[in-house]
# Entry
Amino acid sequence: MAFLERILEPPSYGWKDQHGELVQPTSAQLWREFSGRLNVLADRKNWLALTCWGWVFCLAPFAVLFFTHFFSFPLLMVGFLYAVVAMGTHGTIWYHRYCTHRAYTFSHPFWRFVTRNLTIKAIPEEIYVVSHHVHHAMPEQPGDPYNALAGGLYCFLADANHQPIARTLSEKDYARVTRFLDHTGVHINSYAQYQRWGSVCHPGWTMLHWVLNWGFWFSVFTAIGGLGLAVAMFGGAFVWAIGVRTFNYDGHGQGKDKRRDGVDFNRRDLSINQYWSGIVAGEWHNNHHLYPNSARSGFLPHQIDFAWLYIRTLYRFGAVSSYKDSRDSFMEKHYLPYIAEQEGEGAASIERKATR
# Structure
């Protein structure tokens, strides 16, 4: 079995059946798996999945409190923009392009620390990063942790059901897994600690980071705009934490082939470019699957990419020391040949009509 095929903890229903076909579990199976994966009383190695959803559960009261005690349309708009633009773009900047794909490098750990904590913490890096490497290696295949072919709920519950790392890794395989995270600032467990906790990150350091991050941002928002603003922002973070779990299902056409000629040039999987996620978060997903290591995925003029603007701005100020930009390659290998082909077909069509 290839390395990336064995580094995630398989669900009880498995990745594939005896014929090698994708297992599509029922909703009841998915919810049973989910409840089991959050049960730390049964196994303390479930702590990371519980933590990931525990942060979501902790954000939920802020959303309720906002609508019951602090509601106003200006605060609603601020909280909404914070959720979809600030947190969406930060997710692309930090989790996606830096932590997973190392699309750019920081000139000093200080700038990594700032970028890591640029918004309210809602996802542990380990849950996102390791599984995302597997997703890119086998999209829409059995073992893809958020395989759109298995349905929306399969993707929505993936961070608990499919994304935690395997609990029986050899010391050699565990060392290879830690390399996915050794540049992120995450405190890395020793192999003995991994055997105890079933994770790369340690619960103590993870929870300390969470408490300090939330404490800092709640204090800042309260100082700027009072308790109402803080509640609105944390309520917005809840919206993002729920919404981000739906992205890969939508970003891969909900399991259907929705790719469009002249828009989605990557044909190795079902990923598509969507205007909403592209504009608010710089997540032009088909472009990203075509060039996963690029710090820019908005290659065309209309493909706004706020994440790229942040990275490029830090580069100009010396906070980012290097980055990878695949725009020229995209234009040369994909877009310009397509335009030339379309123009050639158009000219040929005109010529045929003229000779009739």
User: Anything to note?
Assistant: The first helix runs from residue 27 to 37. The longest strand covers residues 320-323. The beta strands are 104-106, 320-323. The CA atoms of residues 259 and 267 lie 8 Å apart.
